[in-house]
Amino acid sequence: MTKLGLFIAALALSFTMAKAQTLNGPESIEFDPNDGKYFVGNTGTGAILKLSANGTLQNFATGVASGPYGLELVGDTLYACSGGNIKMINRVTGVTIATVTMGGTFMNGITHKGNNLYVTDFSAKKIHRFNLTTRQHNIFCSTINSKTPNGIIYDDINDRLVYCCWGTNAPVHAISFSDSTVTQIGTTTLGNCDGIAMNCSGNFYIASWSPNRVTKFSPTFTTPTTFMSTGISSPADIYYNRAQDSLYVPNGNNTVKKAGDLSCTVSLSENFKDRSYPVLFPNPAGNTINFLKEELTETTECVICDLQGKVMKKLILSVTNTSIDISDLKSGMYIVMLRSANKNIIYKLIKE
Known about the structure:
The chain is mainly beta and 352 residues long. It has helices at 3-11, 270-273, and strands at residues 13-14, 26-32, 37-42, 47-51, 57-61, 71-74, 77-82, 85-90, 96-101, 107-113, 116-121, 126-131, 137-141, 149-155, 160-165, 172-175, 182-186, 191-198, 204-210, 212-217, 225-228, 239-241, 246-250, 256-260, 280-281, 288-291, 300-305, 311-317, 323-325, 332-339, 344-351.
């Protein structure tokens, strides 16, 4: 086994429960930053469970017919794909707020940008759009090159939708927000791709049934490598937690597997290690944060995300532009990423 394989095997954890039957057809997983637990769509029982870091399971919502499949948390509402519908569920109580009839056939993958949800219809080969405020919906894209769309994510780095496909030699497609056009951005030798995720560096992860594994791709979909294969069985809608730099995989063998990547881990320069003050200051912060100019170049990109990975701010820093106004951000914790040609640095920021 390669060093990478040994590393992944050492990090991979299987969340097995005292009663294994409580995980029954886990399909989708979504992080709740409010309590640090994970929502898990349990299709075998038509329920949504809550999974803690130590593997403890508890019921969250029951009676979610036809699924639940894709899950997406936006604010205090959890959206769940259920047959041709979307269920809106209160994040705290687990009570269904509404069931929206989308006119779909098999609503499966789900993601969001801003005030809109985007949902793949596996059987009808379409992408639906749902407005969170008005609850109006329409077909966002129906010309998807005759391929069956499955997992979908919002690529916040390139501002586009990216989805993987079912079938043999499954390609990867992107959709433009401006005109809904579809472009093939990657080819694979994988069969029946179910889930797709992305880390803060722009690397993609695709779960496939043939072979049973998770494959990691570079941002340009070159140099694919096997990221996780041990204990993987019909992997479904995977989730990458950027705050913890970890990938979570629900499996057909009734487990949820976890592995850390560390490609987005805080990377401090040798020059910084001997200093008594941080590169990012103050922290906790008020309305402004500053960066040491020694850590910046003329093309350093700064991205500030919330704990769900939603981009709140993105701009270019330089040796003469070292401060950012964050007065418009709500109080709470954020992830700050500095990206340049030779390094990626990540910080946790507390906004007071």
